[in-house]
Specification:
34 strands, 46% strand, 10-stranded mixed beta sheet, 4 helices, disordered N terminus
């Protein structure tokens, strides 16, 4: 007798579904439907081109590159773009399309613009008679609203013919920035200067001064900075709001006075005035004429701090000590630079003998350019210290930003009190005849 064979029910079900739904190789969610990227374009006018997506198939994202620096990303298949090409030329325009499975395909076409509607350009020529001066001319084609020249730390507004001054040898960048319909366009050129201008120092003009006329500190220029309880570098004076400052006969006198013999914070009072937020400068020739106090424990200073100290902090803001004096080392003046690359005892500095620092007025000067800081006494030839990093960076050169002045007389502290304090010397005063700033005009 012949035996029959009964198939399992699950095989029968599989056969049924196989007939009803022939296998396609993947589920509906994984289907990689083909797509063909394409776009069309038409000229709205000579310099505006409209682009329309013509991609066929299943996809979800389009990334346009219009060949002129403008890019757009969209998931709207019907979105059109009108792009402005101000200058004649050939532009390679591409459209990259991405499927839901993150497959990408792209298409490119060359768009030829035959008319220049707007082109930023300028000429820059060295003046043969004055080789540190560059004659600039704005030769931009087309209409625009306004423009700026930018070079070194300067900006010149809306002068078609301008003159750029470069006092030092080197290579510099001049930029012309054009504003048109709320947008900015720019062009740059590199300028090479062969030699330093030997007359640069004498060309600087007086832009600000305080001769301490009248009978009080001018609060349009200065603020009294008060503090107590071991101010600054473990100093012992309390800074008062003007009690220790006097203006008379054109001289500012800052006096450090003894309160008691304890030699602790608060045993002395003095004054510290600053120009922060009122008079701040970048580059120039700074000169301060002063006569210094004397005696072990006294520490007067004429210096500058970066105006961004509130955000950058110290020493990243930069500190320029035009003159410091410690009484236990008489007749020696110091000039020092503090930066993130070197500060405190590792600051970059030097000193110079000055036999009459306590008996006579002397000029303490700083010649500050984008190249270097030069400290001097009485004349630029009498250099105390020169600071000029070859490779400037944020750590060693925070001196391309505004700084403000500080005048103060400290008592004690890490440096001023390194050999103690002689209480018999008080009161002691620093006298200041003037503060002057000269800059390029």
């Amino acid at each position: 007798m012949r035996k029959s064979y009964n198939k399992p029910k699950w095989l029968i079900l599989m056969a049924f579904f196989s007939l009803a739904n022939p296998l396609t190789g993947c589920t509906e969610e994984g289907v990689d439907t083909d797509f063909s990227p394409d776009f069309s374009y038409s000229f709205v006018d000579d310099n505006n081109v409209k682009y329309t997506n013509k991609t066929e198939g299943e996809y979800w994202r389009m990334e346009w590159d219009f060949g002129n620096g403008v890019t757009e990303t969209t998931i709207s298949k019907t979105e059109e773009f009108t792009i402005y090409y101000p200058e004649a030329g050939d532009y390679n325009v591409s459209l990259q399309v991405t499927s839901k499975d993150d497959d990408t395909k792209s298409v490119s076409k060359t768009i030829t613009v035959t008319h220049t509607d707007f082109a930023v350009d300028f000429s820059a020529n060295i003046d043969p008679a004055k080789p540190n001066y560059i004659n600039l001319e704005n030769t931009t084609i087309g209409d625009f609203d306004s423009f700026q020249w930018k070079f070194r730390n300067k900006t010149i507004e809306n002068e078609t013919n301008a003159v750029a001054y470069f006092p030092y040898a080197g290579t510099y960048t001049v930029e012309l920035i054009i504003t048109k319909n709320g947008e900015t366009f720019s062009s740059t050129k590199n300028i090479s200067i062969a030699a330093n201008d030997s007359e640069y120092f004498s060309k600087l003009e007086l832009v600000w001064e305080d001769n301490f006329d009248g009978d009080a500190v001018n609060t349009d220029n200065w603020t009294f900075e008060t503090g107590s309880g071991g101010w600054g570098n473990n100093e012992l004076q309390n800074y008062t709001a003007g009690d220790n400052a006097m203006v008379k006969d054109g001289i500012l006198t800052i006096t450090a006075e003894k309160v008691n013999d304890d030699k602790v914070p608060g045993s002395y009072t003095s004054t510290r005035i600053i120009t922060s937020g009122k008079k701040e400068f970048t580059y120039g020739r700074m000169e301060i004429r002063a006569k210094l106090p004397s005696g072990t424990g006294i520490w007067p200073a004429i210096w500058m701090l970066g105006a961004n100290i509130g955000t950058a902090g110290w020493p990243a803001c930069g500190e320029i000590d035009i003159m410091e004096y410690v009484g236990y080392q008489p007749n020696t003046v110091h000039a020092t630079v503090h930066t993130s690359a070197g500060y405190g005892g590792n600051g970059s500095g030097n000193n110079k003998a000055l036999e009459t620092a306590e008996e006579e007025f002397h000029v303490y000067g700083l010649f500050w350019t984008e190249k270097e800081l030069v400290f001097y006494t009485d004349s630029p030839e009498n250099v105390t210290h020169r600071y000029a990093p070859t490779n400037k960076n944020n750590d060693n050169w925070p001196f391309n930003k505004p700084h403000f002045f500080i005048l103060n007389v400290a008592v004690g502290g890490n440096w001023g009190g390194a050999q103690g304090i002689d209480n018999s010397i008080f009161p002691q005063s620093m006298e200041v005849d003037y503060v002057r700033v000269y800059q390029e005009m």
